[in-house]
Write a structure and sequence with these properties.
279 residues; six-stranded mixed beta sheet; 14 strands
Length: 279
Amino acid sequence: MRFAFFGDVVGRSGRDGLTEHLPGLRRRLGLEFVIVNAENAAAGFGITESTARELFDAGADCLTLGNHSWDQKEALTYIVREPRLIRPLNYPVLSDAPGRGAQLFETEAGRRVLVINLLGRVYMDPLDDPFGAVDRELEACPLGAVADAIVVDMHAEVSSEKMAMGHFCDGRASLVVGTHTHVPTADAQILPGGTAYQTDAGACADYDSVIGNQKEEPLRRFTTRISGGRFKPAEGPATVCGVFVETDPATGLARRVEPIRVGGRLSAHVPEVETARAL
């Protein structure tokens, strides 16, 4: 099976980048399933029904969120109606957070893909333990028995917490990938137990920016320690960043992982694959 995960979509630029490039990538790479982190899709903060619809229309099968899940208040009701929108799994039970933190999808070919969204705790919102939450989900829906592929989006600030999650899920998930820091890391690998891993998928955003935002306000705050206004998404052409994974059909574990980068300012990289059949 071939699938791809794309990092944080930032504003109009990121949405336009996916609309331009994702249909072609699906055809070229023979992608059976596509996951997109969309927590910054609406003007850089949160998601709305209309921005989600743009990403679904572009070819996303599932959207994950993060610490900006509820920045747009309509997301609180939209997520109840839209099962393809996934918020972090590890909200406290008493928070009564709407929606779901994990969802099992079925592809057109009849394969089942479990998508799990987690929020890290180091320098992030103090949610419940993401390791305990994902452990329960993986026990309830094991790879190879219930799910043909499992993707874990670890939305976290520090690389060590993301890497720890990768090793914690090794052998039980097809892919563990980090989001939130918006910069693609150069460590795409298959862990010893067979799980594909990358510390951060990067962002779908204009990289002539500060992590997808127009440069002036972040620079002002760093140099003067005084806020001059809100962060605004950069508006130049986006680089679409993500991760391509090919799994073993018998086990659901990864046998190939490569970064994806197309458009914009970063050096382009698209995996070379045989397009005659999707595994």
